[in-house]
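ping. complex inputs:
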Amino acid sequence: MTRKNINTSAFILLGFVAFGLPLVLRSPTYLHIIILLYLYAYLTTSWNLVGGFAGVLPLGHSAFIGIGAYASTILSLQYGISPWIGMIAGGLLAAIAGILIGLPTFKMRGAYFALATIAFGEGIRVMVENIDNLGPLKINGPRGLQIPPTHIGFGNFMFAGKEPYYYIILVMLIGVLAFTYFISRSKLGYYLNAGGEEPEAAMSLGVNVARAKLIAMAMSSFLTALAGTFYAQFTLYIHPKSVMSLDFSFEIAFIALIGGRGSIAGPVLGALLLRPVSDFSRIYFGSTLPGLHLVIFGTVLILVMIFQPRGLQEPLSKFYNTLLDRISGQTRQGEVTHEYS
Amino acid sequence: MQMRASFAKWRSLHLTFNRDADMNFILEGTINGILMGSIYGLTALGLTVIFGVLKVINFAHGSLIMVSMYVAYWAIIFTGVHPYIALIIVVPVMYFFGYYLQDIIIKPIFKAEKDIREPITVIIVTTGVWYILDNLTLLIFGPQYRSIQNNPLRGKMLEFGDMLISVPKLWGFVTAVITAFAIYWFLQKTRTGRAIRATSLDREAASLMGINQFKIYNIAFGIGTAVVGISAVTLVPFYNIFPSVGVLFDIKGFIIVVLGGLGSIGGAILGGIIIGLIESIAPMFMTATWAEAIVYALFLVVLFVKPSGLFGVKYDW
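pong. complex structure:
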């Protein structure tokens, strides 16, 4: 078997497992945990488009989640518009917001950029918390919006069981991973890469780095907002502290950083490793040792940054590649080390 | 507290009729705003020193304030002394805490990213420290709010004609001014201070002159954290102490430091006073949460228009 074949078969196997999981795993609690895991993997992968590919540190991304959630919720509660359409609307709104935020901030150096994104994120949250009604739109400030679970059906993005949500977020996750893969291989991906490492050199070669970063930001905020709609339809209650908080932004960034920003598998890996830690420590230690999972997060973050700044995906992907080499008898470059009969 | 709240309500109801009392009210708010603002400035002073030298924004700043407040709290509870005497314990403890925090956790990153002028990874690592400190404190000491009820400064007000000036904040103002001058004098006149300034201007040239770069970083971080300790002692007489108390000061600290100019001592105090004024005057005309939004808006305006702040050195941003 060639290396490529083994790689492809591994992916197909993974796909079978992912799609077949709800048929085997019946417990709604565990499905809920896995759905959230996929959601975080989705969010971190979308974040990665800016935080990894564009090479900056955006720490206010939860604002886009909030925009998506509020947009689709308001449209469906007040005007009866299907959340699927609201999702796209929220995404477009977030993309515009992302560009507006990116225009002034991309000129700044690393730490200042991080601070500015925090300020934007928190500023938007404070504004939403203070507004009860924006013209005809009911925003409800800190009390948030609740979605009554009445009209069940695909058109309304509302389901009785967890399984449909599972498949939706799984498809979204696969979609965003494929999207990231193609972007990384595209001209835009190379522009971002060059702009992130040596902006002056890239610009001297004619790369419009600023424009590339803005495009990446627009894509990232659009995709992030879609997850906001999913979150709203899944949990049926949104309020500023839940969908636009600083903690949410930081959590996404942390997970992506620990997994390895700039790579495609990194953010997913981070979510895979850290979300169970978070969930289980909350379930088992939530009352006795509150905040334990955050201590673990912080410690893992520091250790990873000191020893593996490119994230945990680096040693893990090296291991995977070595495994592929041994099994297939070929190395990445294609030389055959030994034949299998 | 209750008496003052209804007093303020009475005042706001009679806003159009009683002009003299009005002016007094605004003047009182202004003065208290300046006093509280100077305390904010004091909390940001440590942050600006650390940034000025290490060129990194220490996201664990708020947590250091929180830790200092707990240290001060326990010091005062166990010894029963006047809060400001706790400085004797808090300052050295926090100095070494900061020194070794830099030495053990942050220095390896600096060494790994030697060529990069401002390693972003340090920001990430300090955020990790923030999470660890805040939640470890939550785990060990619990979420309850603590305060020192019987201290000689709590709730004391000074009467200036019709106005009430908060005594602990007055003490804080004096401490802030003294500390600012002390740090300034230290940086200008002592040998170590000059070494710190040299490193902040050009770290390579400084090390060529025989200055041990990393030792200076350790010392600077230690000093910054010691100043944070001083500010915590100022806060403890009237502020509640709980594990996430640092978060408010963290964000405010960044805003103040950017406003005043990263690395500028006078800028930190001035920036703090501006924030303090906004916080005390704005709620007279709008809800307190909109005042918060104003602070963020101001922050963003400064970031875009003059990122080097009021007194900062202009970098090649």
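Chain A touches chain B through 38 residues (CB under 8 Å).
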